[in-house]
Amino acid sequence: MQIAVIGADTKIGQMIVNSAEALKIRTVSVVSSYISLKGDGKLVVKDYQDLKLSDFDGCHVIVDAVSFLDITRYSTDLLPLWTELEILKNTDISLLCLGSSAFLYTDKSKKRFVFDESDVVINDEQQKVDRLCVNAYKRLSTCSNVKWGIFSPPLFLDDHSIGSGNYMLSDSVLPVNVNGTSRISVNDFVKATIDILKQGIKTRDIMSVCQN
């Protein structure tokens, strides 16, 4: 398998590259400006709006680690995601977007997004980020000619703890563990992302994950 990671210079993107290569998965690191990167695979340094299908020759999956996770960095209309959808339409290359808990559902009835619940709003800035993510997801969901899927973190993506290595994969409903928390460490989120890549992406579907 060969994957490309868009945003390989971000913390999560770099970790995915390193974890994939440790498992002998070939990588292409895609960044918008040159920095010192670890990893042994091909490096593509290009403004994301200028990406072309030929940049992903030999790739089976593209992992987008920036469009949702760093959404305020871009104008809504300039998300890397829209370029990816354009160049991947009617191809066999799958797209895995690392998403947001904002557009996970609150329960199995799948009538309300987490974003719609006032009791999970942390602050105004987070509400802005979540709104942007929900709007981008709604636009993405209308795309039917690309093999896209989303892997969303739970409510809290913990950047401080090492993690336990124990997590449970979930569908599009916000995952909550037996202790009533919806949390995972960045380390374990990356491990779970690699698991999703190995298992295969569910086309036009959302999956999530939570610490056990």
Descriptive report:
With 212 residues, this protein is of the alpha/beta class. The chain has a single domain, classed as NAD(P)-binding Rossmann-like Domain (Rossmann fold, 3-Layer(aba) Sandwich). It contains 4 helices and 10 strands. Strands 3-2-1-4-5-6-10-8 form an 8-stranded mixed sheet, sandwiched between helices. It is globular. The two termini are 29 Å apart. 40% of the residues are buried.
Structural class: alpha/beta
Strand content of the residues, in percent? 15-25%
**CATH classification class:** Alpha Beta
Distance between the termini: 29 Å
Envelope shape: globular
Adjacency order of strands in the biggest sheet: 3-2-1-4-5-6-10-8
Number of strands: 10
- Please summarize the sheet with the most strands: 8 strands, mixed
Question: What level of helicity do the residues show?
Answer: 10-25%
